[in-house]
Amino acid sequence: MLKGKTAVITGGSRGLGEAIAYRLASMGANIVIVDVGATDRAVAVCERCRSEYGVKAGSYKCDVSDFNAVKELSASVKADFGTCHILVNNAGITRDGLAAMMKEEDFDRVIAVNLKGAFNMIRHFSGMFIRNREGCIINIASVAGIMGNVGQCNYAASKAGLIGLTKTIAKELASKGVRCNAIAPGFIATDMTDSQTENPLLGMIPLGKMGSPENVAHAAGYLATADYVTGEVLRVDGGIAM
Ligand code: NAI
Questions:
Q1: Per-residue DSSP letter, 62
Q2: What is the pTM of this model?
Q3: Is the CB–ligand 1 distance for residue 12 below 6 Å?
Q4: What is the pLDDT of residues 66-79, one digit of tens each?
């Protein structure tokens, strides 16, 4: 279904990004993993994409919050893969704390990675989409960006911002054949949520359990091929944000 397409996935060396990489590779896409850390994990994800799904795969170390580094990254991906058709802005961090006590650097860093990082990627990769008159951007937001969440003013603001970014890019690039959607996951079992297993909000999930990275990856696979869907925010949350 995605044979001959190239998908760039930020934060793809573990968690949701890793699952999304396997999903898109299983659909035939070549995979580019972009991550700031864990180079060995990124290399291992690429190896599995190649051996299990027979696609081309490569990993790049890059901090998505760095505008110029992302510019260089886009040139490297273009040189190595020719172009890019699918961009998944998945890299994200948390630095939780109550707003009344939050350090300025914790607010700034979360916005820089989660929101500006997605902008940087779109800014430097959309030229390829526009030239191809085809492209698909998937931003991984969060239900925190829809509902807010105590202790996460920085994170919720970054994810709400990502939803506004998604709808604006969808409008700006629709005439160029480029779609842009967001996924808003709820509680998904990954390293990021390891510390959340006692969170009382878990008891409020209508479907009664945490989600899996594969649940989110399935939604990404859908959006990658949903030709008539743009500007959408797809909740994958067991119903918690209903
Ligand atoms: P994770 O912490 O397991 O993985 C995040 C990945 O992003 C890591 O590989 C990390 O090295 C990379 N990364 C962090 N900062 C980066 C930067 N500046 N540049 C490049 N790469 C960077 O997180 P997880 O749980 O897989 O989450 C992935 C995305 O899904 C995040 O955007 C997160 O906010 C979002 N999300 C996760 C939920 C969950 O329950 N796990 C719920 C809602 C949203």
A1: -
A2: 0.98
A3: no
A4: 999 999 999 999 99
